[in-house]
Amino acid sequence: MELNAMTEKRASRRFAAFRSPFYCQEGDNGDADMSVSDVSSAGVGIVTNKKVAEGDRIKLELMVPGDDVPMFVIAEVVWAAREPDTVRDYCAGFHFAGIHPSDKKRLVNYIYSSFVRQP
Question: Fewer CB within 10 Å, N side or C side of the chain?
Fold first, then answer.
């Protein structure tokens, strides 16, 4: 499902990912509880228990559903908001500041097959 295009400021379309088993964790220490809320070829929306602020860069490990090989990306926080009445206290938008071209191709293929080319 494509998210609201009227308020969209991104160059890449994003798609809601809660309906898919898209997995994410912080790369080096994995101590943050994270879930992917939306995904695009340029970044991800994440809900997390870790406080993040605009400009922060973190290493993320992403598992695309149906793929056994993780993607390791450097992601920069573009926006962050506190969500005090939820299990995970923060939601944030991350831009991929560093992603291997083969990983980006895998991600684009997943997005296309899961969201764009619907039967």
Answer: C
